[in-house]
């Protein structure tokens, strides 16, 4: 009998041990959930969004307010979360460090998903797609054959520091001179003034600029360059936030909101008279 009693106690202890891990897992899941940036946003009552001004993703209107595709996306996201939205304009080359340091909750800024960036931040499913385009100075680049005529130290490219176009230029035109600027308006002005031969940036900006300034700039090629996908970027280690943002993108892809807003901002310029000069 004594032996039987010992065996029963051992069996009960084993069953208790088997049942313990799920309870511990639930506790761990609750702890992770409570640490998610989603809970921080809900408690704060505001979604903080990092972005960088770039036509037509985000730009200032004649009243100094931010408008653009990203602004519409972030505003709708905040509305669906039942919170306010706060935009934190940030220089592009410092936007990922600013996210990691907690200055805002998420980057919604036309950021191309790349393996290198993905080592540092998590990306959502794509919510938009684009490609790069070229704008060249008639004064400086007329007569140069694309692309081989641009891969020489005598040719200067301009780009926004830390951007995908800078990476593309380094890889595709390793012999060219590369000048980097913190602000996209400086990049544009360098080409407009003929101080740089060309710039590469996300469409439709080059196409819009060429349409407005046909006597000053042109496109040496009409071929789409390096088609890409853009995602929200967020800090690693937050599965709840990644799940929420992914599903928000899926819902707003299915209901047509993202496509409608993208067509408005990228398909033409009905908004042009709203933008500050």
From TrEMBL:
Q: Where in or outside the cell is it found?
A: Cell envelope
A molecular function (GO) held by this record is:
ligand-gated monoatomic ion channel activity
Record-linked Pfam families: SBP_bac_3
Every copy of the Solute-binding protein family 3/N-terminal domain together lies at 46-269
Signal peptide span: 1-25
Where's it mainly located?
A: other
Q: Does the keyword Signal apply?
A: yes
What family, per the record?
Belongs to the bacterial solute-binding protein 3 family.
Protein name as annotated: Amino acid ABC transporter substrate-binding protein (PAAT family)
Q: Which organism is it from?
A: Rhodovulum euryhalinum
